[in-house]
Structures are given as C-alpha cells and as structure tokens.
Amino acid sequence: MNKLFIDSDVLLDLLLDREPFSEDISTLIEKCIESEVKLCTSLLSIANMHYIIGRLENKNKADLKIQKILKIVSIENLGQTVIDKASKSRFKDFEDSIQNFCAEESGHKIIITRNTKDYKESKLSILTPKEYLAKIRSE
Fold this sequence. Notes:
By secondary structure, the protein is an alpha/beta fold.
C-alpha cells in the first residue's frame, strides 16, 4: 500500500478551512481514499495543530477537529533516531527536520506541504497538494 506524509500546515488548511488552500487538500484526501493511499502525519503535527486551533478557537473545537483528522490520517512514530537525525541535520527549522526524518524513517517517499522551501535539505519528494494532484492526474 502506498502512503503519503502530510505536514501540519496542509492539515490546518483543511481543519481551519483556509482559502484558497482547503480545496486542494480536500481533493487530495478524497483521491487518496479512493485509491487506497494511506495518509499519515507525525505526533508532532497533531500536538501542534491542537495547540494552534486551541489558540485560534478554543480547546473544545481543537479536540473535535483533532478527532476528525484522526479518522483519516495515521500517526507515524517519533523516536530517538528521528530526534537525533533532526538535531544533526542542516535543516534551518527544527520542526521541519523532525517531520522530514519522521517521514523518512517511516518509509515515506513524499511529503505534502505548502512550505516546500523549508525542505531543501530533504532526500524525499516535497510537493504541495496542488503539485501532488497534478502528478497523480498525469500518471
């Protein structure tokens, strides 16, 4: 089964209905579910999303939105190896390096994010939702 790592910025687009980005991630999720692509994110993403939604809205809404997202994404493990690699990497942003190495250690080939420039050091394919949709349409 193919799997796809989704960064928190893109999931927040969906959960907070951030236009014009929410439509692309909604379509991407629908296409992945149809083609049985497993959607994944990290524990760090879940924690960060809960915090951000709680600050923008409230804790109850954050709880509900996290429960909603957990119905469509699986959580990849973070561990010592991921943190060690992230702390020694050349990534400018520590959080992005954690996401990258979590995806890499979990066998992902692609990370979906809107912050592609933050992943210049990655060995993985880094695509926006729009780029990923164009890729799967051309296959």
